[in-house]
Design goal:
Layout (H helix, E strand, L loop, with lengths): L10 E3 L10 H10 L5 E3 L9 H8 L7 E3 L10 H10 L5 E3 L9 H8 L7 E3 L9 H11 L5 E3 L6 H12 L7 E3 L10 H10 L5 E3 L9 H8 L7 E3 L8 H12 L5 E3 L6 H9 L1
Parallel strand pairs: 1-2, 2-3, 3-4, 4-5, 5-6, 6-7, 7-8, 8-9, 9-10
């Protein structure tokens, strides 16, 4: 039973266990009493009806460094309590909240994260937060200058939000993984994204798929060609055009450790396709 607790417990991993409602009291008690806990993984548990108790218990964990609540159908009404839990822990380094459909309620969570300076990994893909998340995410980036991984795909940032976030990313140089795919950008975001890429010379993983960047994406590819660290690139569904072929060829040539390249639905055409294949 998770009701049996150890005050010196440092790590608790209950990922993918389909935790039932009946266990909520025991789980709440276990978390509250495990005050030394540094790592808590409750991802993939569909905690919808359990979440409120669990999140309240998190407010007792002042030493938590890694927290995973992803894919749990976390209800938006719990966001305020989760924000309070984040504020109570000044040591948080890694947070996974992807796949919870938090929508605009996630803004208060981002505002809480902006009060930290320790964050290195933030994964909030697939929450459909909206354009209002742009300013809040900018504050998170500005406060956490050693951020290494930012996954914020499928959040409807829009063009204005995308521009602001890309500008903020230019002030850090530690990013290794960046996901801004499927965020309803326009061509206006590309120049700022290219500048952000140039600031982060160690970038290894990049997702920008589904943003309809069209020919403006060439400047992003040109920035990527100045790197030598890239291992994964997803720019599917951007309708870039034939001119993308030449730029992509430079990316491939300069990043010899590239392991995955996703570039479908980009209108490379025959000429562009031949150049890339060569």
């Amino acid at each position: 039973s998770v009701g049996v607790t150890l005050s010196h417990l440092l790590l608790l991993n209950l990922n993918n266990n389909d935790i039932p409602v009946e266990a909520s009291d025991a789980l709440e008690c276990a978390i509250q009493k495990s005050t030394a806990l540094e790592v808590l993984d409750l991802g993939n548990n569909k905690l919808l009806e359990v979440t409120s108790k669990v999140v309240k218990a998190l407010q007792h964990l002042n030493l938590i460094k890694k927290l995973n609540l992803s894919s749990n159908n976390v209800p938006s009404c719990v966001s305020e309590e989760l924000a309070a839990a984040i504020k109570s822990s000044k040591c948080l380094k890694k947070l996974w909240l992807y796949g919870n459909n938090l929508q605009s309620s996630a803004v208060v969570i981002l505002e809480a994260l902006s009060e930290l300076s320790t964050l290195k990994v933030l994964s909030m893909n697939n929450n459909q937060i909206g354009e209002e998340s742009g300013d809040a995410l900018v504050s998170v980036i500005n406060s956490n200058i050693e951020l290494k991984e930012l996954r914020f795909g499928s959040n409807k940032l829009g063009t204005a939000g995308g521009v602001r976030v890309a500008q903020a990313l230019q002030s850090i140089c530690s990013l290794k993984s960046l996901n801004l795919g499927d965020n309803m950008f326009s061509q206006d975001v590309s120049t700022e994204l290219a500048a952000a890429i140039k600031s982060n010379k160690c970038l290894e993983l990049l997702w920008l798929q589904g943003n309809n960047l069209q020919s403006s994406a060439v400047v992003i590819l040109e920035a990527l060609s100045e790197l030598s660290t890239l291992k994964f690139l997803n720019m599917d569904k951007n309708q870039i055009g034939e001119e993308g072929g030449v730029a992509l060829l430079s990316v491939i040539s300069n990043n010899i450790d590239l392991q995955e390249l996703h570039f479908d639905s980009n209108k490379l055409g025959t000429a562009g396709g031949v150049r890339v294949a060569q």
